[in-house]
Write a structure and sequence with these properties.
The complex is a heterodimer of chains A (160) and B (764). With 160 residues, chain A is an alpha+beta fold. In chain A, α2 (89-96) runs antiparallel to α5. Helix content of chain A is 34%, strand content 16%. Chain A has a 5-stranded mixed sheet, sandwiched between helices. Chain A is globular, with a radius of gyration of 16 Å. Chain A has helices spanning 26-33, 89-96, 106-119, 125-131, 143-159, and strands at 5-11, 14-20, 52-55, 58-61, 74-76. With 764 residues, chain B is of the alpha+beta class. Among the domains of chain B are: 8-38 and 471-611, Aldehyde Oxidoreductase, domain 4 (2-Layer Sandwich); 41-150 and 229-275, Aldehyde Oxidoreductase, domain 3 (Alpha-Beta Complex), CATH 3.90.1170.50; 435-463 and 620-763, Aldehyde Oxidoreductase, domain 4, CATH 3.30.365.10. Chain B is globular and about 85 Å long. The termini of chain B are far apart. The interface between A and B is large, with 58 and 59 residues. One FE2/S2 (inorganic) cluster binds at residues 100-105, 137-140 of chain A.
Chain lengths: 160, 764
Amino acid sequence: MAAKVHVTATLNGEPVEFLCEPRQSLLEVLRDELKLTGSKEGCNNGNCGACSVILDGLLVDACIVLGAEIDGCTVETIEGLMGSDGLHPLQQTFLENAALQCGICTPGFIMAGKALLEKNPQASEGDIRHWCAGNLCRCTGYDKIVRAIMDAEPQLEVKK
Amino acid sequence: MNPTQTMAPAQTEVEQKYKVIGTRPIRHDGVDKVTGRAVYGADVQLPGMLHGKVLRSPHAHANIKSINTAKAEALYGVKAVMTAADFPDSGSRTANLGELGEVPLKPMCDNVMASDKAVYHGHAVAAVAATSPHIAEEALGLIEVEYEVLPPVMDVLKAMDEDSPLVHEDLYTDELGEKSAKPSNVASHTRHVKGDLSQGFAAADHVLEREYRCATVHQGYIEPHAATAMWNPDGYLTMWVTTQGAFTVRTSVHQILDIPVSKLKVIPTEIGGGFGGKIPVYGEPVAAVLSRKARRPVKVVMDRTEVFQATGPTSGSYVKLKMGVTNQGRITAAETMLAYEAGGYPGSIVALGGICMFAPYNIDNTTIDMYDVVVNKPKTAAYRAPGAPNSEFAVECMLDEFCERLGLDPMEIRLLNGAKEGDIQSHGIPHPRIGCIETTEAARDCEHYQTPLEGPNRGRGVASGYWVNAGLTSSVTARLNGDGTVTLQEGSTDIGGTRTSIAMQLAEVLGIPVEDVVPSVVDTDSVGYTEVTGGSRVTFATGWAAYNAGQAIKSQLIEQAADLWKVDKDQVSLADGVITTTNGDSRSMTIKELAADLSQKGIDVGSRETVTPQNHGGAYATHVVDVEVDPDTGKVTILRYTAVQDAGRAIHPSYVEGQMQGGVVQGIGWALNEEYFYNEDGLLMNSSFLDYRMPTSLDLPMIETIIVEVPNPGHPYGVRGVGEVPIVPPQAAISNAIARAVGVRLGDLPMSPQTVVKALSAKS
Ligand code: FES
Ligand code: FES
């Protein structure tokens, strides 16, 4: 077994330090080492988006990033989304639109939605469908998810 | 099925106005699920927990000659290794799997871990528990298995051939009640006969005979199976499982491991989708045995490849259908043969395919022959309306072909033949009150259907679907708190918001806001027996248990108030959360006030309810789809989709819509892309989400929904199950739309681009 790597990063706004094996993915580190199980594993090979997190402002699948790679980086996960004023607008619109059934894909979709709306605050239905094609949901047929992301747009505008 | 224990209300209450039912409250478990705090199967972490991994057969069909685990055991970090030899002998006992009926135990044990023979690629043969998942994986590579590779049989019709290789040498056909003389891959042949086929066909002006096939598809839930077990030295076993039925897991593990249910507690975690695929056990008994051997908690989580290789899928199928109609479009006779793949062990869901096949129509003369056939694929599991899409696809496609030939409107032929209350179904049971006609009429009249579709290579398809639904046993425990709220413990795992749709029914009875009901899904020690979350039964049956609990609390409150006021309880009533006298002295208090008083006095108000309702009523749907076909690439684009469905009574309309939309999209995937690819050696070639192509948001438009409410007289609020039927019509609706767009009729699923292109070039 290779020696563990020492990593320092910023996670959900706070400094974090951990040791990980070079073969451990960021998703494993988040879930097994840092006990943040909000990011989910659906496939472990970059095909479902259940593990979506934001790395230095970019939406990535945490299962295909190595834990050791995030040294010096900034990572946002679903656990960091709730502010002092309560739920993030996307969390609220997902609830109001019944945009989750089983909910396993929800953290990934919310992180994907956040990354999209930061880039494109007025994303159209088509933009959202295109952007979210990396996130699979088997329960909802996407209809209510797309609506929830659209509904969050004006609220995020107001927040700014 | 057990006799009913449900008190039918004196009269159905569907005509009343509701305060809670029909509203769209935010689900009670919502915040946990949008913040990442909800604990799903793989999220369970226990002190000292080990990670289990399963070694799987690299062959589709092979005798296991020997397994040597010594090297794996010696690897640093490995704490236990197991094989099927660690299970107690399964003998000839059976296990009850609810919706799936009684199943013999030996195949169930062998499916969890192969003892003598691997019967599909990915079949479990051994398992390891180690201090990290990576070490466990390394150890799997050190296990030596000697196989004798056998020829695989991968297709249902080939498996039925006399000279086909046998999946099991000791399997004999149950041929219409008689055991066959020779072993065979056909586990059973059953038949339903109604009327007289020759008379029926003689009365027909047009007869068609066609073959229809469905590829093997998977449920595709995003959360892989996960089970954590902790076996204590005193013999008590606790399991944390993502499952559709905690009690079903308890029963299965109890039977496989031969330990008393009293020593086994199953704690259901949140579940990341199931669709029928999370009813059977896979890693649960494995985690338990590894935990016993390692004397530490063990978590077994599948990866996606394992999910595809070894769980689910649904039956690949062959359907032959012959139907006759009059010039007016009245169906006079239908004869069909259904052959469904069961996978590696008997028990496909062909019987439900037979029951549902002709249920949307009243046909006087029908014969249905059903074959359950083993092949070298994973043991099939239920998948949303299990069995129904395969068979109804055939009927719905053929009806459309008749429409085209006779110049009939697809809605009119469905209305002309549509099933009504009292019509005898093909298996001899009369229909209860059903909403077949109302649903079809709503589809005919909807804006989508009334708006003409224009443009080249575009076509509109229509199809209907039926699903039988289920009742089965459900339990809840409800207790009034001192602040007037009610805690509600439910035995049904919640896959799509049922905590709330159940709680709403209790809230309605008491006239309190649904936020004042606090539902939770609890373990097998904490609530009465409850069957699986399946059969579209939870809002119907568990909701009924909650309704009964509400009624019990209501009468207890009335009694207590009468006591307090020293009046007869007949002179007290409860409505909208307020208790009042009806004798004119106008005394009143809120539930909250009375609850505070009772709690101070130490008086407990609550109820424990178990129901087994029988009259679940069937569910109907009619769908309309517009497609555009690219004649060069064969790609089919869904332009517009409308699903119309009878919900009986929509308790939470957003969740009903969500079920409809989700079912439609699974049906679209089944129709256009999804398919297991096996090579000639029987090895699964596309066990990833990249290669097993499920619909993404980019592949779809919004899915429009129209909820029809024909109340089910078998439920106090008129509820019918809604979850499953929406997966039935899409396949045929899309096939019919393609036919109208480009003039080719496709009877083999999926209708992938290459299939469409091939059909187009064959036509030209
Ligand atoms: S788990 Fe990372 S993309 Fe599926
Ligand atoms: S809500 Fe279940 S996968 Fe999206």
